[in-house]
UniProtKB/TrEMBL annotation, chain B:
Lineage summary: Bacteria, Bacillati, Bacillota, Bacilli, Bacillales
Bilayer-spanning residue ranges: 6-21, 28-49, 69-92
Entry keywords, A to Z: Cell membrane, Membrane, Transmembrane, Transmembrane helix
Subcellular location: Cell membrane
Top-level taxon of origin: Bacteria
Keyword S-adenosyl-L-methionine tagged: no
Membrane topology type: Multi-pass membrane protein
Transmembrane helix as UniProt keyword: yes
Name recorded for this polypeptide: Na(+)/H(+) antiporter subunit C
Family per record: Belongs to the CPA3 antiporters (TC 2.A.63) subunit C family.
Chief place where the protein resides: membrane
Alphabetical list of Pfam families matching this protein: Oxidored_q2 (PF00420)
């Protein structure tokens, strides 16, 4: 039992509610938001520390032992993602201060921001499949509001499509949960793992597994990413950074968790399917990244490519590749946020999203330019930057496990990332100024500060890869062998004990007088 | 009983999918509503129907209904209620300010 685990949800939710009452007091809103995100980082650090020293932490809500009641679990994987989310969230908040504009701030932007964080933290920490659905909905509803906030024509149009896709995928999620409950009689993930292992992963279980995979793929943009490039181009830049960094990663987290913990008995079917989807995602994402001359679309297709890359690591499913998945997820959350920060500065400075109309920005913004260049190298995976360690672990075990074709696609996709982003670098920063308009005002320092923090993190993660890897390896070990996770959740509840608990639990129920 | 409800769920899903695939925004809205209805009914049916007693009758009860799916449905209904309300308001707003009442208008300009 560790009550700390609920704080990453409570603090943003509480903050969001307070901010509703401070509609007109924007400065106060900012101060409270800033305090809230820093407290969250501190708590995430403590959780990582505790998991590191004491092993997996659990919290049984209301003292109800599993499989009854809701359980929160922080293994190293969840803890690291919570920490990364807290840091990226804080950076996005400070970028919002500089770029989101007073109009949106007055209309509850920060409230939605904190609700979104609540949903993301909840998805990482929950140990219950239905609770995962609820947390998904919390973050989705917040994201609907954030996409449409401002109400321009483009935003209205794209939000309609975004909501439609997500309503349908949420319906399918509940349907999958219903089937799973009918087949196993539980929704606690650790308990599900035991039950599925007992019952064997036969036809019915495989159907449920594939249904869940479809649902999570829609959220993550794995193969089913048709909605992503348009939807993510609609909202303002700070929101795009938040979405690009966090939302697809939640879907990937759900895939990783489900297919490393519960459905692990028919790798030939499920993981082969994930592998195919990953390959197709990388190829299609690469086509998109090369096809467009419009900054936000190039960036959005880069998100798609990295989703495919991470899914490739999940499909290989060795300890080494799962380490790579964890490492690369952390790197990608930070790097994608930074990519959108720098892209946001470029777009704000040149007043357009079309590459052809940009140029010569290196003279006005040398720091932005060189940061963009180094970030490109990090995204491609050039050592000693942060993208390298994750990529090398995944690709190495891909070759080792006979997934040669996929590993080659993954390597080729890195070159596409390099080409597309260097093209952006050339067009934006080289040459002369192409826009005839006057220089757009830009709160340069305020925008640079959060970007610089993430930039330093990318370099530190690359140079200190050995240290980070110590933590990442713990996460990968739990993913590769979920016994530790199951034991931590079902502590003292072995197979015989489970029926004992059922008995003692029934007696707790109130007797209804005749 | 389960067979009957299963058929009803099937019909709800079919009609829901058919409506979602149509062009008119209003039909799509109704389609998603029917789809979520079908899903909720599915969740209820999966725990077994007509077991002969209400849930939580105490340890000596011979039979009782599984209370968990009902709790789940309640949560899910609240969520879909909120999302539907938001969706409807948004569609209305899109109709009023962007003149959009079917998905033809939602394609947007391509670069």
């Amino acid at each position: 039992m560790n009550n700390l685990l609920v704080l990453p949800l409570l603090i943003p939710a509480f903050t969001a509610v307070i901010l509703i009452f401070l509609k007109e007091r924007i400065n106060l809103q900012r101060i409270i938001s800033a305090i809230s995100v820093f407290v969250n980082i501190a708590i995430a650090l403590i959780i990582v520390y505790q998991v590191n020293t004491n092993g997996i932490q659990t919290l049984y809500m209301g003292g109800w032992l599993p499989p009854y009641g809701i359980v929160f679990v922080a293994d190293m994987f969840a803890a690291l993602l919570v920490l990364t989310t807290a840091v990226v969230g804080a950076a996005c908040l400070f970028f919002s201060f500089a770029s989101i504009g007073e109009q949106r701030e007055r209309f509850y932007y920060y409230t939605f921001f904190h609700f979104l964080l609540t949903g993301v933290f909840g998805s990482f920490l929950t140990g219950d499949l239905f609770n995962l659905f609820v947390c998904f909905e919390v973050l989705l509803v917040a994201s609907y509001a954030m996409i449409v906030l401002g109400g321009t024509k483009v935003q209205l149009r794209e939000t309609l499509k975004y909501i439609l896709v997500n309503v349908i995928s949420s319906s399918l999620f509940v349907a999958a949960i219903a089937y799973l409950y009918a087949a196993t009689g539980t929704l606690n993930m650790a308990h599900l793992a035991i039950r599925v292992a007992e019952a064997g992963q036969d036809g019915v279980m495989n159907v449920i597994a594939v249904l869940l995979l479809l649902v999570f793929s829609l959220k993550a943009g794995l193969l089913l990413f048709f909605w992503l490039p348009d939807s993510y181009s609609a909202p303002p830049l700070a929101v795009r950074a938040l979405f690009g960094a966090l939302l697809t990663k939640v879907g990937l987290y759900a895939i990783t968790r489900t297919f490393s913990l519960i459905f692990v008995h028919d790798l030939g079917l499920t993981h082969t399917l994930i592998g195919w989807m990953a390959g197709a995602t990388m190829i299609l994402g690469a086509v998109g990244a090369l096809a467009y001359n419009d900054l936000s679309r190039i960036f959005n297709y880069n998100i798609v490519i990295s989703v495919g890359f991470i899914a490739f690591g999940i499909s290989v499913a060795t300890q080494d590749s799962l380490n790579g998945v964890v490492f690369y997820l952390m790197h990608d959350m930070i790097a994608k946020a930074l990519l959108f920060f720098l892209g946001g500065m470029i777009i704000a400075a040149s007043g357009t999203e079309q590459l052809r109309q940009m140029g010569g920005l290196i003279r006005r913004y040398p720091w932005t330019g060189w940061m963009f260049f180094i970030l490109t190298l990090a995204l491609v995976g050039v050592p000693p930057l942060s993208g390298f360690a994750g990529k090398v672990m995944m690709v190495r075990s891909g070759f080792g496990e006979q997934h040669v074709a996929l590993a080659l696609i993954a390597l080729a996709s890195s070159f596409v990332v390099l080409y597309s982003l260097i093209k952006v670098f050339q067009e934006v920063f080289w040459g002369g100024e192409r826009s005839e308009e006057e220089v757009h005002p830009l709160r340069y320092k305020a925008m640079m500060a959060p970007a610089a923090v993430l930039f330093v993190l990318i370099i530190l993660m690359g140079i200190g890869a050995e240290t980070v890897n110590g933590l990442v390896a713990q996460a990968g070990a739990v993913l590769a062998d979920p016994a530790e996770y199951i034991n931590a959740v079902m502590k003292g509840v072995d197979e015989d004990g489970l029926s004992n608990i059922v008995k003692s639990h029934d007696s707790v129920l109130v007797d209804v007088p005749e | 009983m389960e067979i009957l409800i299963a058929l009803a769920i099937g019909v709800l899903f079919t009609v829901g999918v058919y409506l979602v695939l149509s062009k008119s925004l209003l039909r799509i809205l109704l389609g998603t509503t029917l789809l979520t209805h079908g899903v909720h009914l599915l969740l209820l049916t999966m725990a077994g129907l007509k077991t002969g007693a209400s849930p939580l009758l105490g340890e000596k009860a011979d039979s009782y209904v599984d209370p968990l799916p009902q709790a789940l449905i309640l949560t899910s209904i609240v969520i879909s209620f909120g999302v539907s309300a938001f969706f409807i308001v948004l569609a209305y707003r899109a109709y009023r300010s962007a003149g959009m009442d079917d998905v033809e208008g939602s394609k947007g300009e391509r670069p």
